[in-house]
Write a structure and sequence with these properties.
By secondary structure, the protein is α+β, with helices and mostly antiparallel strands. Among the domains are: about 50 residues, no CATH class; about 30 residues, no CATH class; about 50 residues, no CATH class. The chain contains two helices and twelve strands; from the N terminus they run H-E-E-E-E-E-E-E-E-E-E-E-E-H. Strands 1-2 form a two-stranded antiparallel sheet. A hairpin with a 2-residue loop joins strand 5 and strand 6. The longest helix is centred in the last third of the chain and has 20 residues. The chain is extended, with a radius of gyration of 22 Å. The two termini are about 15 Å apart. The relative contact order is 0.08.
């Protein structure tokens, strides 16, 4: 194996080992900076032996003892606990999408139904926050699904074969990254 490749693997193993050593619920702390090594954690000073806990909107990942964003349908007792998912609220003890938002692949997307817009087409300011939607040129402009997308429970989903802008960027960016990494390792 090339020396540069070995160095990259060695560096990655040191970084992952350092990250894995900081466990959330077993790290004792005092109110201060003892939890700074654990992303999205803070000191829970309430118990008799204070330990680090995940901040609101995050939960403990049992696989590696880190804090990860709460997901839709995770349990909660207040809206702050669902802040890991944008536009989510605590409803019936579970994180769910708020009014005028619908779940789509683990995130809350603004629904296209009843969303009005002012300047059709081209100036889609109101529709820009709705994935795969644009402003119609009807008498009363409303947000509608773009060509290549269909509405499903208020969410514009791409039809088979249609690619999102993010996917297209990934198709261009990924090969460039491979070339850059190859050049760096030479």
């Amino acid at each position: 194996m090339d020396v540069k490749v070995c160095l990259v693997f060695l560096l990655l193993s040191v970084i992952t080992t350092e990250i894995a050593q900081a466990a959330v619920s077993t790290t004792p702390c005092t109110v201060g900076d003892e939890c700074d090594d654990i992303e999205y954690a803070e000191c829970d000073a309430d118990p008799t032996t204070p330990v680090c806990k995940c901040k609101d909107g995050y939960k403990e990942n049992n696989e590696d003892d880190s804090c990860v964003a709460k997901e839709l349908t995770d349990t909660c007792s207040g809206d702050a606990e669902c802040s890991g998912v944008e536009f989510a609220v605590c409803t019936g003890g579970k994180c769910a999408c708020g009014d005028k938002y619908a779940p789509n692949k683990g995130v809350c997307n603004q629904v296209v139904t009843d969303a009005t817009c002012a300047d059709p087409p081209g100036n889609d300011v109101e529709c820009a926050n709705i994935e795969n939607a644009e402003c119609s040129d009807a008498n009363v402009p409303i947000c509608v699904c773009k060509t290549g997308a269909t509405e499903n429970n208020g969410v514009c989903e791409l039809e088979n074969g249609a690619a999102s802008a993010t996917a297209m960027i990934g198709l261009v960016f990924f090969p460039l990254m491979i070339i850059l990494i190859d050049k760096l390792l030479m």
